[in-house]
Amino acid sequence: MTTTYRYLFVDLLTNDILAELPLTGVSFTQQLNQAGALQGHLLLSGMATADFNVNASTIPGRTGLYVDRNGILIWGGVIWGRTYNSADQTLNLMAREYESYFERRRITTTIDFSNIDQLVIARTIMNTAQSVPEGDIGVIVGLETSGVLLSRTYYNYELKGVYNAIQDLSRGEDGFDFNIQVSYDPITNEPLKTLILGYPRTGTVYDPSDPEALVFEFPAGNIVEYEYPEDGAIAANTVYALGAGSNEGKLIETAQDAVLLADGWPLLEEQANYSDVTDATYLQELATGQVLAVAYPPTTIKIVVPAYATPQLGDYQIGDDARLVIQDERFPGTLDAIYRIVGLSVQPGEDGPERVTLTLTTTTN
Question: What is the C-alpha separation between 311 and 314, in angstroms, rounded?
Answer without folding.
Answer: 8
